[in-house]
Amino acid sequence: MLAAAITVAVAGASLMTTPSWARPADPADGRLVAYQGYRVTVPASWQVVDLAAQPGACVRFDRPTVYLGHPGDQASCSTNLAGRTAALIIEPLDAVATSRLTAQTAITAPGTAVADSAVSHDDAIQVAVRGAGVLVTAAHNPDTEDAVRRILASASLGRDARPSADVVLTAKAQPAAAPLAAAPLAAAGPQPGTYTGKGFDTCAAPSQSTMNTWRNSSPYRAIGIYISGGSRSCSQPNLTANWVTNQTSNGWRLIPIELGRQAPCGTRQPKMSADATTARSQGVTAANSAVSAAQALGIPAGSAIYNDIEQYPSNASCKHAVLSFLSGWTQQLHARGYLSGMYSSGSSGITDVCGAYNDPAYTRLDHLWIAWWNGVANTDGGPYCDAAYYANHQRLHQYAGDVRETWGGVQINIDRNYLDVSTSVTEPPPTSWSAVVDNTTPGGFTASANWGTSAFSAQRHGTDYRFADPVAASDPAWFRVNIPATASYEVSIWYPASTGYNEATPFIVATTGGNQTVTVNQRVNGGQWVSLGVFSMAAGDGDKVGVSRWTTGTGYVIADAVRFTRV
């Protein structure tokens, strides 16, 4: 973090015709926006908002806009903004802006307005332009990142540009991005901790003065904050590690929120994959991103982080994708030392999660945040979630939404919540299931007389294994198992390895969507379980994994053992 004051040119915003000496190579339908000598061309359809003239404007990312100047208190932001498209914030690079610089901020070389190596972090690109003394933050989603980068590449310096006078920034600046000091861990313990009572959430973290006023006059003691995710609609100019320190020191409980990928059957972007295996992986990625954001803000391990999945028209495949995403989310948060939570509407996400409470195919959340606007401040889940589920201080209830409240003369647009939570309580996992089928398992293995038996390799599983020459014909050996329920299963194989064995052995997995083939090099990684992946498999007894002789590889094809694990 940089705290030194910076001398900047007098702030002023204007729209002007591009002079020939500074004309960027951009579409003819663009418009040039200039601020303190920093010039950038945006599409003509974009709005331009001068925050000096409109200090109360909500800096929102759900519509393409250029904001000039420092974002204000953000108290006017609605809580029901939907997602993000693209936007630019161009503000003076003074002490206010430098408090928001991160390790991912790119710093331009002297005399230039473009940082070629600028990276995107949490769906935003931040560039400190030394030659004009401005900080540019470009918000985007996965679909608009390329367009935003083209806009940033159009930037130039005008004759009225005045370089930043910040000695610290100059010393750290390089032609490419320069890492800055990481924020210290600062929160007063895991969040939200143990708390029963009222809380609120709002699109943007309020200013310190607003938080102080509401602390002294409102009934709320917990606040939801959007710390990460590519679907967040509001700028977060106040949300820093210092802000976190101040609020928790003043007795506020924080509810950290990730607002990112949404249900594949919903309307909001960006969406998680409809493929359950991919969705699970995306949940892992979301967890890592959320933990990075939490750590940068000083929200420590042991805290709960809540994934916001907005209302969606649920169906069987969509439910499977959402629950798989949340399983990956939960497992990775646990691996990183955090607890998992989820916010959703009672009629979609909450119903799906509670309906799978005892399903071992999915990993249980630790906390559940129920959106049910019935106006009652309690943690009742109504018809959407059985009272016995998530009952041990694990519930939050959003009981009213997008309302304006005024306390101490300060008004904010909020959603009202009631919490009964503890970060010292976690959910036990559902009962798991696993089965190993060896080539000697009675009734578990079938193969033609073309498959021989060997105990040659010490890497074998059990007493022996089966082998066969490759052939351009269908003659697979099959492993049979009784699958307890239609769900996701990890399939792993065991085989001895040798240079004389086949380098392209086809393993056939019978999934709910048909047979899938995974090719394995049996010359390496022998004597251990090797995962073929996670597959949706149907309940019932039958041939589930085959080893085919039909391969272009050379050397013996080996069939030894298969392990099935419900995930």
UniProtKB/TrEMBL annotation:
The record's Gene3D superfamilies line, in alphabetical order, gives: Glycosidases
Q: Which SUPFAM superfamilies match?
A: (Trans)glycosidases
Keywords, A to Z, come to: Signal
Q: Which CDD domains match?
A: CBM6-CBM35-CBM36_like_2
Please state every residue range assigned to the domain named Golvesin/Xly CBD-like.
Answer: 436-566
| Domain Rv2525c-like glycoside hydrolase-like intervals | 213-418
Task: Look up keyword Transmembrane helix and say if it applies.
Answer: no
Keyword Hydrolase assigned: no
Q: Which residues form the signal peptide?
A: 1-22
Instruction: Return the protein name.
Output: DUF1906 domain-containing protein
From what organism does this protein derive?
A: Catellatospora methionotrophica
